[in-house]
Amino acid sequence: MQKLVVLTGAGISAESGLKTFRDSNGLWEGHDVMEVASPEGWYANPTLVLHFYNERRKQALSAQPNKAHLALADLEQDFEVTIITQNVDHLHEDAGSSHVIHLHGKLFESRSTADENLVYQMDGWELNLGDLCEKGSQLRPNIVWFGEAVPMMEEAIHFAQQADVFLVVGTSLQVYPAAGLVQYTPHNCPVYIIDPSRPATTASDNFYFIEEKATTGMEKFKELIKK
Known about the structure:
Elements: E1 3-8, H1 10-14, E2 27-28, E3 31-32, H2 33-36, H3 39-44, H4 46-61, H5 67-74, E4 80-85, H6 91-95, E5 100-102, E6 105-112, E7 119-121, E8 139-143, H7 153-161, E9 165-169, E10 191-194, E11 207-210, H8 214-225
Parallel strand pairs: 1-4, 1-9, 4-5, 9-10, 10-11
Antiparallel strand pairs: 2-3, 6-7, 6-8
């Protein structure tokens, strides 16, 4: 069975109603992104950061997978599918995808500020000041913020190197290191890019652009791949 490796970004979750900070001039729900998604923002105002992610979780709880998520899950019938996502929601899993790598962390997990290996599954949406890990340190969202290392990157590179087909859905290929995964694909591996605006990437003969939003673009991709 051929290996299909998929890189997904905010564009696929946007069609399920989850907003991204790129929606309006770099503001994320009215906040400068560095206020709510950086270590500096956390140290300056942890209460604001915790409140911000509480609101993101509440929003995510009401979101449902859309046709693009479901189409990717359906492709497991024909391919060995690995999804590498920049998204922190769990819509790929909700849709039925069985192998999902979260590059930027998971919205419904918290982790210790003293020991990054202490990660906890969250039962609800709320994380507050005073919620502590077993070592007595404040819990923070288990999210990879701007300026932090991306611990799952090596695993993602490994799968990109094994791809028979590489698919990019709903990302502008501007956020690194994730955007660099395309460069790790094998020589002559076809790369399909689904995005309404053609990303500014170094195209080659094996790049195929589908200038559509995620849901309609996935329909076209499935038609192309079955030919």
